[in-house]
Amino acid sequence: MSAKESAIVQFDNVGLRYGTEREVLSNISFTLFPGRFYFLTGASGAGKTSLLKLLYLAQRPSRGGMRMFGTDVITMPRDELPGFRRRMGVVFQDFRLVDHLSAFDNVALPLRVSGVRERDLAGPVNDMLDWVGLGHRADARPATLSGGEQQRVAIARAVIARPEILVADEPTGNVDPEMALKLIRLFEALNRLGTTVVVATHDYQLIRKVPESLIMRLDKGTLSDPTGALRYPPKRAPSGVEA
Ligand SMILES: Nc1ncnc2c1ncn2[C@@H]1O[C@H](COP(=O)(O)OP(=O)(O)OP(=O)(O)O)[C@@H](O)[C@H]1O
């Protein structure tokens, strides 16, 4: 099998500009391989959120090619987008929980969308809420939860359906270091089950907790490759890398 065939995501010379501004991402080329754990890092404003928006298909690039799950997503008909999104779990920087639904119902959403029967929901949803330390807040609406609690509901919702790829934008930005480590362990557990994980963060303490991770670094809209993440076959991160 060639590298191209086994890739889960492939960006080829992608550029992004908002409106008529200069490009915020330039010449972005990379390949993500199934089952790997990637960190996307870089200074504030470097373009991490913009790159993730391209990845979870919320934003079209201004130029370049993108393939996901073996399909050209630039030329793909728009009505195929929802099917693609169901194969991804996304933790948004601003959480995007559904205001009028409880924590339980927010977490249950991806399972309901994929047709899981009501009687089969409660077990996995409650287990997941317990894992993120929110079993006692299952009935709470997002507005009554703290920022860190909302973030944990958002993470539980993103991982519950075991997506093929998990894309998380600063998923530990609002929690204490102990909870941050727990959440990264949750991502690792999902990764061991086969999910490709992409986490944007500037927290190097966190990156060091996942020694087998691969690092992509954005610097003013262009990518560099401190751990060989962008080469094939990808190399294991040398320990103590400060990208
Ligand atoms: N909707 C938008 N319209 C215009 N410019 C934007 C928009 N979103 C982001 N930008 C610009 O794109 C650049 C990259 O922003 P982005 O949010 O992708 O960076 P980031 O690395 O995620 O930053 P942070 O770590 O602070 O979240 C910045 O200069 C930002 O001002």
TrEMBL record:
One GO MF term attached to the UniProt entry: ATP binding
Keywords, ordered alphabetically: ATP-binding, Cell cycle, Cell division, Cell membrane, Membrane, Nucleotide-binding, Transport
Superkingdom as given in the UniProt entry: Bacteria
PROSITE patterns from the UniProt entry: ABC_TRANSPORTER_1, ABC_TRANSPORTER_2
InterPro entries, A to Z: AAA+_ATPase, ABC_transporter-like_ATP-bd, ABC_transporter-like_CS, ABC_transpr_LolD-like, Cell_div_FtsE, MacB-like_ATP-bd, P-loop_NTPase
Primary residence: membrane
GO biological process, one term: cell division
Cellular compartments annotated: Cell inner membrane; Cell membrane
Membrane topology: Peripheral membrane protein
Domain ABC transporter: 9-243
One GO term describing the cellular component: plasma membrane
One Pfam assignment: ABC_tran
Assembly and interaction partners: Homodimer. Forms a membrane-associated complex with FtsX.
Function summary: Part of the ABC transporter FtsEX involved in cellular division. Important for assembly or stability of the septal ring.
Protein family: Belongs to the ABC transporter superfamily.
Name of the molecule in the record: Cell division ATP-binding protein FtsE
Organism: Qipengyuania aquimaris
Gene behind this protein: ftsE
